[in-house]
């Protein structure tokens, strides 16, 4: 059994306290706009602060030394607990959401998925709209820190590939984890501010600019309008969104390195190069699909680039019904839901580096078949790939496909058609947001799904955000044995 529950309780107490403090922000906005939801946020904030402070104060210890087993448990339990508490403002608001819907919305926010059950966003209280954005912004920051500090230690799906890279460089530049987190937070805030300013200059209202800046950098995709980013009808705004979606999908570790050395370090990274290669190729295929399904006058290269960037990065903004561009487009967008961005970014999915490892491994095996007596060692960013990393990536890929298939089967058994079930499972596990089909397509919400389906997808979102194995290991009998 987990022995160090005191450290787990202390960490969760701190996180719940931070969540409670964050609720004060939408409360202030509600008061300033004359909305009554400030009472809801104040009550939820007071409750969270009471629970969080009490828990952390009663379990305080000067040093926190988590074992690997405790780190697994703490990570999963923390995200579940935060979703549980962050659902309270939704459940208590005048939107009259059930707790199932509220938990789904909160989990979608924290995991930066972007799927929503709220209809008529244009008339929703500003406090609620800001709270959704805050959840995605906090979740995006949390996943960056987790990807750098926790997942490499847990050796999740090849993430140990970045353990040596992070520690070697940071020992020279930023010796302590606290300094690393502080630097990442500063960069994250800076990008958010720059994005908000750019949106505002391009024509967005200040509130819309702030909300969309938070969900763009977090690659989350929550919007203040039912029409998403298309509401503004501005190519300039959409180009700004493309730029900052890409910023959020590149490794934040490289931003720190570029500050210490030169910005060219970002574009020398093989993962970044592959990311832009994928983006170019997929945009080209999407453009062909759109051209085949529409007249030349209706065709828009901008629309294809915007939607491919949004779905591939897991942001989920839409400005056109890409599922109406024909069968090729449906197949393409279903595939790019799985791709995702780079490691140590706010993005989601399988991630670029795993596709690189798979390619390098296949190339090695083909060379060994052609030259049986040759010795071939695959290299990633100038460093040899170990069998452990390759094995981790292959295991992760297998589990990823199996997980999507499993949740698709559950949704099919709940009565949904194949496209809806498969795309809902894919978009949840990959933390993308919109699915395919009439019920959960780019212009629809998830409100029409059953309560069972929403709980299934909430679990899928959590598993996808925590890289699957972090959750699955808790289901092992061995994990709970001494």
Could you please describe the fold and organization of this structure?
The protein is an all-alpha fold. The chain contains 22 helices and two strands. A two-stranded antiparallel ribbon has the order 1-2. Strand 1 and strand 2 form a beta hairpin. Helix 1 runs parallel beside helix 4, helix 6 (99-110) crosses helix 7 and helix 19 packs across helix 20.
Query: What is the straight-line distance between the termini?
Result: 6 Å
Name the beta content range: under 5%
The structure class reads: mainly alpha
Give the topology string: H per helix, E per strand. HHHHHHHHHHHHHHHHHHEEHHHH
Radius of gyration: 22 Å
Major sheet description: 2 strands, antiparallel
Mean pLDDT across every amino acid position: 87
Count of alpha and pi helical runs:
22
Helical content stands at 55-70%
Q: What general outline do the C-alpha atoms trace? A: globular
Kindly state the number of beta strands.
2
Side by side, the strands of the main sheet go 1-2
Residue windows where pLDDT falls under 50 for at least 5 positions: 164-175
Secondary structure layout:
Elements (H helix, E strand, L loop, with lengths): L4 H18 L1 H9 L4 H22 L9 H19 L1 H5 L6 H12 L15 H24 L1 H4 L8 H11 L3 H25 L4 H12 L17 H15 L2 H9 L3 H5 L1 H24 L7 H12 L14 H10 L15 H19 L8 E2 L2 E2 L2 H27 L4 H12 L21 H15 L3 H4 L10
Helix pairs in contact: 1-3, 1-4, 2-3, 2-7, 4-6, 6-7, 6-21, 7-10, 7-11, 10-11, 10-12, 12-16, 15-16, 15-17, 18-19, 19-20, 19-21, 20-21
């Amino acid at each position: 059994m987990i022995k160090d529950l005191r450290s787990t309780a202390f960490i969760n107490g701190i996180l719940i306290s931070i969540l409670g403090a964050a609720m004060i922000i939408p409360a202030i906005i509600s008061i300033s706009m004359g909305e009554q939801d400030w009472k809801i946020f104040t009550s939820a904030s007071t409750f969270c602060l009471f629970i969080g402070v009490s828990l952390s104060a009663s379990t305080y210890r000067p040093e926190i030394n988590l074992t690997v087993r405790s780190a697994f448990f703490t990570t999963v339990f923390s995200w579940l607990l935060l979703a549980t508490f962050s659902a309270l403002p939704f459940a208590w608001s005048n939107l009259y959401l059930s707790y199932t819907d509220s938990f789904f919305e909160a989990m979608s926010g924290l995991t930066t998925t972007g799927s929503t059950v709220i209809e008529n966003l244009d008339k929703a209280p500003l406090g609620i709209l800001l709270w959704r954005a805050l959840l995605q912004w906090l979740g995006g920051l949390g996943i960056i820190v987790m990807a750098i500090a926790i997942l490499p230690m847990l050796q999740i799906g090849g993430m140990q590939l970045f353990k040596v890279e992070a520690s070697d460089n940071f020992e020279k530049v930023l010796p302590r984890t606290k300094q690393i987190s502080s630097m990442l937070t500063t960069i994250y805030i800076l990008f958010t501010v720059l994005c908000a300013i750019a949106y505002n200059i391009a024509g967005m209202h200040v509130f819309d600019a702030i909300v969309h800046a938070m969900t763009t950098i977090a690659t989350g995709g929550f919007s203040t309008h039912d029409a998403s980013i298309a509401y503004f009808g501005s190519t300039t705004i959409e180009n700004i969104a493309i730029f900052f979606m890409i910023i959020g999908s590149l490794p934040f570790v490289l931003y720190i390195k570029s500050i210490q050395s030169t910005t060219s370090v970002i574009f020398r990274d093989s993962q970044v190069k592959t990311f832009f290669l994928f983006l170019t190729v997929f945009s080209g295929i999407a453009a062909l699909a759109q051209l085949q399904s529409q007249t030349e006058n209706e065709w828009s290269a901008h629309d294809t680039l915007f939607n491919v960037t949004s779905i591939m990065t897991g942001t989920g903004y839409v400005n056109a019904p890409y599922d109406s561009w024909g069968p090729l487009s449906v197949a393409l967008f279903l595939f790019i839901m799985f791709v995702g961005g780079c490691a140590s970014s706010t993005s989601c999915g399988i991630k670029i580096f795993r596709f690189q490892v798979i390619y390098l491994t296949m190339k090695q095996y083909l060379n060994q078949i052609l030259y049986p007596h040759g010795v071939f060692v695959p290299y990633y960013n100038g460093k040899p790939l170990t069998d452990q990393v390759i094995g981790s990536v292959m295991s992760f890929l297998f589990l990823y496909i199996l997980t999507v298939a499993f949740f698709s089967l559950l949704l099919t058994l709940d009565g949904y058609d194949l496209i809806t079930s498969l795309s809902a499972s894919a978009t949840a596990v990959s933390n993308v947001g919109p699915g395919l089909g009439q019920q959960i397509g780019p212009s629809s919400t998830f409100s029409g799904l059953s309560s069972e389906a929403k709980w299934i997808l909430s679990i899928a979102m959590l598993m996808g955000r925590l890289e699957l194995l972090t959750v699955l290991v808790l289901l092992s009998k061995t994990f709970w044995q001494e």
